[in-house]
Write a sequence for this structure.
């Protein structure tokens, strides 16, 4: 009974749990978890709200190999509290990044499998602090020569502090389903009005925050199909394309961002940007199959600018 | 000397009054309210076309804008009361009596209007029950209908959403009533004649196309593992067991899960071609993978579904289509098909009691019935046999040998706890309290318990056909009611004995591992997947897009 059913599994990244993503991304059997669920490091805050806890507080950290290369890895579980940053959750990630920077024998690559709505509201102060610490730890690690690669394509997207964290990484892999932004669509609508941003206009939401847009604008460096194997392949390809983290890189990025603002600053919607970039049939971008889209993205100078 | 032509004489005078605003049959949208005021008389029975899908919204808004001193006390007889303009008719006093079938989104507003005494409620009907009364004692004097296009002679093209139109026009026109149509476009020639022009008295081109609710689109992304488990139980424990070939599905996520499991779990059981081949069903997008995988031979539809038109056009072997290539739907015929030619109905409900009566009515909300009570009932007039029907009949009558008749399978598919963890199993339906408060003679019940043959929850299947006493029935229901208070009050010993007799079957009794009940099993996990399955022919409305 069980055997025939497994053949219908698709390996979708979007559908997978954090643990399924880890297992599929790394070389088979290579993963060693740090502070695993058996340690029961649960949130000290959730019980007060009568909310269920997770033994891993919604994040899996550890080390393993990817195509034989040693990496550290953290995967958020978007299904637990929307993958949010709580106190323990944040501390595990901060610790992992500090380990990467501080230890000679630590792998020089950290993979962040982000799937998060941002800070966990029930532990807001601890969560905000955690996001700040994680950003600092990423930058410290990058200064020390560690590559930090974000992979975004989960159900919760990558919002709030998660959006800023992704922006601080060396490289970002994204799928069509992936979304990166700071304020979520509903938050923008609530604060700025429906005229500014209609959160129920789903195509608008996706062409503003979604993976294809991020990739074409250079806000992500690689585009993956929605399956774990494609994310793995994209991550492997990026391992040898890690930019130096120095003043020169920053200055170039600043210049590119300034140019982008100049060229597209007056555009009202993404198809206008695609038009200005000279993409044929800009309105069809949303409906293009993955491989056709990837071809267009590769041909675009803007898309390969890695300016966030 | 008796007068035998009063209705025709009346009709002539109404037509004459209306023609002051029209050029032949055609009038301008700006004159709609004036024409309606001229043609309609106080106290008229009016059918304003609208159901759970398409709406004659321009005519509804125009009627709601009528002068209440000229038009009042109308008796509204229509399938669906779903637009706010429909409610306005009552709050403004233009209409006072109501006989309807479905209200969906206006369920709460109708409840308020009833309590405030603004609506005199005749009855809540099923669709074909109301249609039937159009021909007996609720014949409309005025029908206000909607079509895709029309010509100056009144020939109408209703397009894929034909739905109720032929029935309404038949009842109204042939009993000397007046039929007024709004069309999206006035054309020299219509693509196909769904309604012949001599049945139409006036035509107006509406400022905007009529509204259609995409009520039958279920986003696979919302389907939960629990619903998948229930779908597996239904497929293996009921579809396979009875060999269900002809069926109708409700619109919940549970049945959407079944549709999406046919090409995976269903295939693994070797059921392709053996079950779920002939359907009375709207064009559910979630059925696309099963159609594309060759499961489905034929589907007749009540209405259409937004975004499915091109897909249907490209699959005429499966759907009923006209000479123009587009879908031909018909609610009256499809409801009849569901009643007489289907062996199974499966749907979900809000509440179910210890006798398996179910209802979606609460004192705060009256969403109406629609077609479910009709689909979900055993047709005592049925005389043709089928294996599924006979097997169910034998199970029900084994203890009473004698004349065996068949039984339609009526399956309730529900999670033990519904939205916001409200228990679905109750000692008393909320509609009983509603009936008390409203002093109704008849408690609104969606499906009567004696028509229900199976209840499927995440805890298992209760086969009510095999229950021999009222007590067994109650324990069989408690035995699948999970951790609700109804479920916890079960008699454990009796439930175990029912299980040993196969009255209750747990997932393990069917060799189903709940750990296999996983979204990976869905043939499509998103609307985008459905678009891919359709080869780009399915074009979902924006609110369902995640890209």
């Amino acid at each position: 009974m069980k055997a025939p059913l497994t053949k219908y599994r698709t390996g979708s990244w979007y559908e997978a749990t954090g643990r399924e993503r880890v297992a599929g991304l790394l070389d088979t059997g290579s993963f060693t978890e740090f502070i695993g669920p058996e340690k029961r490091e649960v949130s000290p805050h959730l019980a007060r709200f009568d909310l269920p806890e997770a033994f891993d507080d919604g994040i899996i950290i550890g080390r393993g190999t990817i195509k034989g290369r040693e990496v550290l890895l953290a995967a958020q579980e978007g299904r637990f509290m929307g993958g949010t940053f709580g106190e323990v959750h944040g501390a595990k990630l901060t610790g992992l990044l500090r380990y990467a920077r501080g230890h000679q024998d630590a792998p020089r690559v950290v993979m962040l499998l982000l799937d998060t709505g941002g800070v966990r509201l029930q532990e807001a102060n601890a969560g905000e602090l955690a996001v700040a610490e994680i950003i600092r730890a990423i930058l410290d690690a990058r200064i020390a020569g560690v590559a930090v690669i974000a992979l975004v394509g989960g159900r919760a997207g990558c919002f709030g502090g998660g959006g800023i964290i992704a922006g601080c990484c060396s490289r970002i892999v994204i799928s069509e389903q992936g979304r990166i932004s700071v304020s979520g669509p509903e938050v923008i609508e609530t604060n700025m009005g429906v005229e500014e941003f209609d959160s129920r206009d789903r195509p608008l939401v996706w062409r503003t925050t979604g993976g294809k847009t991020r990739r074409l604008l250079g806000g992500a460096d690689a585009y993956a199909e929605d399956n774990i194997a494609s994310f793995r392949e994209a991550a492997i390809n990026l391992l040898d394309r890690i930019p130096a983290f120095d003043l020169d890189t920053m200055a170039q990025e600043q210049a590119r961002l300034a140019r982008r603002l100049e060229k597209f600053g007056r555009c009202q919607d993404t198809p206008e940007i695609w038009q200005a970039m000279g993409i044929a049939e800009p309105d069809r971008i949303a409906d293009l199959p993955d491989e056709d889209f990837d071809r267009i993205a590769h041909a675009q100078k803007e898309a390969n600018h890695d300016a966030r | 000397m008796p007068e035998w032509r009063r209705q025709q004489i009346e009709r002539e005078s109404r037509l004459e009054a209306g023609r002051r605003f029209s050029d032949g049959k055609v009038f301008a949208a700006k004159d709609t309210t004036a024409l309606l005021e001229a043609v309609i008389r106080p106290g008229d029975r009016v059918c304003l076309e609208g159901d759970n899908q398409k709406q004659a919204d321009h005519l509804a808004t125009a009627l709601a804008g009528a002068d209440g001193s000229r038009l009042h006390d109308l008796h509204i007889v229509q399938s669906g009361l779903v637009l706010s303009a429909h409610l306005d008719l009552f709050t403004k006093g233009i209409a006072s009596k109501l006989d309807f079938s479905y209200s969906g989104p206006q369920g709460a507003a109708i409840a308020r209007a009833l309590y405030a005494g603004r609506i005199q409620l005749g009855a809540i009907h099923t669709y074909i029950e109301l249609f039937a009364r159009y021909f007996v004692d609720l014949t409309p004097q005025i029908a206000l209908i909607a079509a895709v296009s029309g010509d100056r002679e009144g020939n109408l093209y209703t397009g894929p959403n034909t739905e109720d139109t032929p029935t309404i026009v038949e009842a109204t026109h042939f009993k000397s009533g007046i039929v007024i149509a709004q069309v999206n476009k006035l054309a020299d020639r219509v693509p196909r004649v769904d309604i012949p022009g001599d049945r139409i008295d006036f035509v107006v081109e509406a400022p905007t196309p009529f509204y259609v609710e995409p009520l039958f689109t279920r986003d696979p992304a919302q389907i939960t593992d629990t619903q998948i488990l229930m779908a597996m139980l239904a497929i293996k424990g009921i579809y396979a067991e009875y060999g269900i070939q002809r069926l109708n599905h409700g619109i919940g996520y549970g049945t959407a899960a079944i549709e999406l499991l046919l090409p995976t779990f269903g295939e693994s059981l070797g059921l392709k071609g053996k079950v779920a081949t002939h359907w009375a069903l709207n064009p559910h997008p979630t059925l696309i993978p099963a159609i594309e995988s060759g499961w489905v031979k034929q589907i007749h539809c009540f209405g259409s579904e937004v975004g499915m038109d091109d897909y249907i056009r490209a699959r005429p072997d499966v759907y009923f289509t006209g000479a123009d290539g587009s879908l031909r739907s018909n609610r009256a015929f499809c409801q009849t098909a569901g009643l007489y030619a289907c062996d199974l109905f499966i749907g979900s409900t809000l509440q179910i009691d210890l006798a398996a009566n179910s209802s979606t009515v609460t004192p705060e909300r009256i969403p109406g019935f629609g077609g479910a009570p009709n689909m979900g009932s055993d047709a005592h007039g049925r005389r043709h046999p089928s294996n599924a029907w006979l097997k169910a009949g034998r199970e029900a009558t084994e203890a009473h040998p004698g004349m065996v008749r068949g039984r339609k399978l009526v399956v309730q598919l529900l999670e033990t706890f519904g939205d916001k963890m409200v228990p679905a199993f109750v000692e008393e339906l909320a509609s009983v309290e509603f009936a008390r408060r409203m002093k109704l003679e008849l408690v609104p019940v969606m499906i009567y318990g004696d028509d229900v043959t199976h209840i499927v929850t995440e805890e298992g299947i209760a086969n009510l056909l095999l229950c021999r006493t009222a007590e067994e029935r109650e324990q069989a229901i408690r035995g699948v009611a999970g951790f609700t208070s109804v479920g916890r009050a079960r008699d454990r010993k009796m439930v175990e004995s029912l299980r040993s007799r196969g009255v209750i079957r747990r997932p393990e009794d069917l060799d189903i591992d709940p750990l296999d009940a996983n979204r990976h099993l869905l043939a499509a996990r998103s609307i985008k997947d459905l678009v891919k399955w359709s080869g780009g022919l399915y074009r979902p409305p924006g609110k369902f897009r995640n890209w």
